[in-house]
Structure formats: structure tokens, C-alpha cells
Amino acid sequence: xxxxxxxxxAFLLSTTSHVxxxxxxxxxxxxxxxxxxxPCKAPTTVKVDDFVFSKYLPGKNNIFxxxxxxxxxxxxxxxxxxxxxxxxxxxxxxxxxxxxxxADATEVIVVSHGxxxxxFISSDNxxxxxxxxxxxxxxxxxxxxHFVLNVGKGKASANVIFDSVRPSVQLFNLALFGNNLxxxxxxxxxxxxxxxxxxxxxxFKGSG
Length: 208
Fold this sequence. Notes:
With 208 residues, this protein is α+β, with helices and mostly antiparallel strands. 21% of the residues lie in helices and 28% in strands. The protein has four helices and ten strands. The protein has helices at residues 2-21, 172-177, 183-190, 194-203; strands at residues 66-71, 85-91, 96-101, 107-113, 115-121, 127-133, 137-140, 145-150, 156-162, 170-171. It has a five-stranded antiparallel beta sheet with strand order 1-2-9-4-7, with no helix packed on it. Strands 6-5-8-3-10 form a five-stranded antiparallel beta sheet.
């Protein structure tokens, strides 16, 4: 009995000590990033403002008619080591978030205003599509092609959460038409005719 009590006490002590030792690791952005992430600021230099992000506001619309405001570790050092980041997007009526992927992050969409049609395509090419509104949450599994459309009246807004401090993103349209990949290759791999490829490369500022 004494051994069990001692074991339990030792376990609790080690657990609480471990937790208190790593309450947070606010990124020291000036120190530079390592393969393991940013080093921690000295605890004595951490302030409450390190845990507050004050720029979570609508941004400037892009060519797809939506704005995207990110809160990743490079902007919000308190996220360092927490394996999550956030963003908000505000989509004008008729606007779209085109097909794209996050190879290293699952995405959770939380609608705050309006009506959005969101969807993803599984690896066996099955589409999962749903129109969602305020009070709905939609999960997009890691690495799958997905999109969002504003299908309502007026502007729509949502917050997204990623299980990565800095999720990667690859937009399908920009990957095909926004670089100098040879047009002949694009035509052959997409079955688009030369005129269509030329038009799309012009829109997305590609060449080749």
C-alpha cells in the first residue's frame, strides 16, 4: 500500500512539474527559426501582449473576390509549439476560395456570417459538398483538394483553424497557370485547348 501511495505521489509530482516547466514557448522571432521551430523567449521577458493578436481584421480582396487574414506563428508568437494556427476569410457575394490543398494540415471552417458551400474531394475522387451557415462547422481532412463558394446574398465570413503553426497552401489555378510551366505540357495534362490555356495564363499572370 505504501509503495502504491509513493508511486502515485511521484507520478503526480513529475506530471505537474513537467507541465509547469513548459506552460508556453512564446517564439523568439528575432532569434531565427530552426528545424524544430522557433526558440522560446526567456520567460521573464514574456508579456501578456504576446498572447494577444490584434490584426484579425478583414484584408484586401484578391482576384477571387475574398480577403484572407492569417494568424500563424510568424505573426502570433504565442502559437509556437502549439500545433495550431488560425485565419479568417471574408468573401464577397459570388466570390470563391478556389480549389487548393494544405498538404500538412487539417482545416476546420467555422462560419460566422452568410451562406457558404464548402467541399472537398477524397482520394478516391468522391466529392463531399455541403452548404453551411452561421452555427455550422465543416472539417476538411489533411491534404485533400477543397473549395468554398459564397452562395448567399451579401458578404460571408468564416474563421478557419489549422493543426499546424504555419500550414502550407497550393492553389490549383496558380499551380497550373500562374508560373512558367510550358503551355504545351499544361494542354496535354489538362486536355485544355491552346486558347483556353493562353487565356488562363493571362489571367493568373503565367508565362511559357
